Amino acid sequence: MIHQACISCGEKYGADEILYSCERCGDILEVKYDYDVIEEKLRKSDWKSLPLSVWRYKDFMPIRPSSKIVSLNEGGTGLHSCQRLADLLGVKQLYVKNEGENPTGSFKDRGMTVGITKALELDMKTVICASTGNTSASLAAYAAKAGLQCTVLIPSGKIAYGKLAQAIVYGAKAVQIRGNFDQALKMVLELSEKHREVYLLNSINPFRLEGQKSLAYEICDQMNGEAPDRVILPMGNAGNISAAWKGFTEFNKLGLTNRLPKMTGIQAEGAAPIAQAIKKGSNKIVPVDEPETVATAIRIGSPVNWKKAIRAIGESKGTAETVTDGEILEAQKMLARSEGLFVEPASASSVAGLKKLLESGKIDRDEVIVCVTTGHGLKDPDIIMKTSEKPLEVDAEIESIEKLVGLARPIPATVVSR
Ligand code: F0G
What is the pTM of this model? Predict the structure, then answer.
C-alpha cells in the first residue's frame, strides 16, 4: 500500500492524509511503496515502449489509476553529451541533463504534474507555494491547466523577471513579501495548516517530489540502464537532490539499473548551509539568516529538505561544494559558449561545482558525470545584460561592419571553393 512515513521516527500516515510534517516528532515525510506491487505492475505494462516523459513512469507514481492526470508534457528533457565542455574542464565523459527544456522552463514541472494531479484527487480547490521564482511559475501553469486557484508568495525584488512574468500571465495571485524565501515558506506552511482547504505544493509536500524522481529514471533510461558515476545538482531547498536519489535507489531496487551514482550537491557560497555541513563532516546544518547570491533561485538559508539531502549525499558516497557568484557566472557563459546551452545562474552552479571539484582533485577525471541544469537561461536575461559585454553598434554601412567584426579583405570569387 502506498503511504506516507516520517523520515525520522517512521510514523505512518495514509496516502490521502493532508499533512506536511510528522504529527509525532515534527520531521518531514516521504512516500513509501510496496515494491513487489510496482514490479507486478511493470511486468504487465508496456511502459518501456512509451516516449521519455514523467508519465512513462506512471506505475512508479503515487496516483490512483482512475485519476485525471494534469499534464503539459513534462520530462523527456535532453541528456546532452558535452564533449567540448568536457575537454575544457579536463574530464573524460560529461553529460548535461537540461531541465530548462520542461514546459515552464524548469524541473519543477516534473513535480507539479504529480502534485496538481494529487490536489485534484484530494478535491482541493486552491493551491499555494512560496518560491524563489520557478516553483511559482510552474505551480501557476499547472493550476491554470487544472482550473484551480493559485497563490504564490515571493521575496520582493529578489526573483528573476521572467519567472514573475510567468506567474502573472498564468493568472496566479502573486504576492511579493518584504522578506526572503525562508520567511515566505514559513508563512505558506502556517496558512495551509490554518486553512485546510489550501493545498501546499512546496517540496515539503512529498507527493511533489515523487514527480521529480523521474529525473533519475530518465537519466538511467537515456544511458541504457547504466547510471553515471556521479550526478551533480544545485541545491536550494534540497528537494531535487533528495528526489533524484530516491529515483536512483528505486530503479536499482527494481533491477532497472545495477549502479548508483554519487550524489553531489552544489550551493552558492552565500547560501550554503548543507554544503558547509557536509564539508565539516557534520550531519546537522546551521541555517544562514541572510542568504545572498546572484543565483536567486537558490537564495535559501534554511532548506526544509536538508536531512534528506545529507542522507542522499552520505548514502551515495557523494559530496558537496560551494561556489562563488563569479564562478557561477563564468560557468554559465562557458556552458553557453561551448555547448549552446543557456541556463540560469542557479543551474550553472552544477558546472561551476564540477570545475572546482576537478581542480581540487575530489572528482576523478575518468568518471562519467551528469550535471543537471535546472532552469532555462531566458528566465533571467537581466543578469547577462548586467555582466556581459554590450552588443556592438555601427552605422548601417558594409565597411563599418567589416571593420568592426574584423573581416579580411574580400577574396576574389574565383578562389572561393564550393
Ligand atoms: N535550480 C533552480 C533553477 C531552482 O529554481 C531551484 C529551486 C533549485 C535549483 C534548487 O532546487 O530547492 O530542490 O534544491 N527553486 C525553488 C523555487 C526554491 O521556489 O523555485 P531544490
Answer: 0.96
